[in-house]
Amino acid sequence: MPPDETTDDKAHAGRQSGDGPPRAAGDGRQRLTPEQHRVLREGGTERAFTGAYHDEKADGLYRCAGCGAALFSSRAKFDSGSGWPSFAEAVGQNVTLRDDLSHKMRRIEAVCASCGGHLGHLFDDGPRDRGGLRYCVNSAALVLDREPSS
Ligand SMILES: [Zn+2]
User: Fold this and answer.
1) Residues 78-110: pLDDT tens digits?
2) Ligand 1 centre from 33 Cα, in Å?
3) Ligand 1 centroid vs 115 CA: distance in angstroms?
4) Beta carbons within 10 angstroms of residue 2's beta carbon
5) Is residue 18 domain-resident?
6) Are 40 and 34 in contact (CB under 8 A)?
């Protein structure tokens, strides 16, 4: 089932084609909404409690909205109360960590290992019984691949 964003994107595609030919659908990369682009490619942060997944409870696999790489399992998700989707662990080595010294803070940035898209930040105030880590991720960087409910 395609995510809702795909439908939205098609509505805008005609106006953004510019000089070049329109990009063919199904070229392996999902087109990004302006909000997805701002987060993934410009390192932006969505406002707390505004994202699609901060309160999402469904089972499934959270994929990178930029390239489709599997990033987080719903089983690692927990309710942090922060207003952003929070995960205790990432899938394999699919999330890369790097120092982020912006905004006069020292934080650890979490990026997609496949496409380098900005996902969010890693903090050490996660649930102790699950390792103590909290990946604080923007909903806009994610697309939930829902498991069939049957
Ligand atoms: Zn990616």
Assistant:
1) 999 999 999 999 999 999 999 999 989 999 999
2) 14
3) 4
4) 8
5) no
6) no
| Residue 136 is among the residues annotated as catalytic for this protein | yes
The pLDDT mean for the chain works out to 87
81 sits in the region (left: phi over 0; alpha: psi -120 to 50; else beta) called left
Q: Which of 87, 72, 97 is nearest to 127 (CA)?
A: 87
> Count of domains in the chain?
1
Q: Which of 67, 112, 115, 136 is catalytic?
A: 136
Whether 51 maps to a domain, the answer reads yes
What CATH number is given to the structural domain containing 113?
A: 2.170.150.20
Report if residue 26 sits inside a domain. Answer: no
Any idea of the CA torsion for 75, 76, 78, 82, to the nearest 10 degrees? -140
Q: What's the CA-to-centroid distance between 71 and ligand 1, angstroms?
A: 8
| Residue 24 located in a structural domain | no
**How far, in Å, from the CA of 98 to the mean position of ligand 1?**
15
CA 44 – CA 26 distance, rounded (Å): 26
Q: How far is the CA of 69 from the centre of ligand 1 (A)?
A: 6
* 117-145 tens-digit pLDDT: 999 999 999 999 999 999 999 999 999 99
Coil, strand or helix at 39: helix
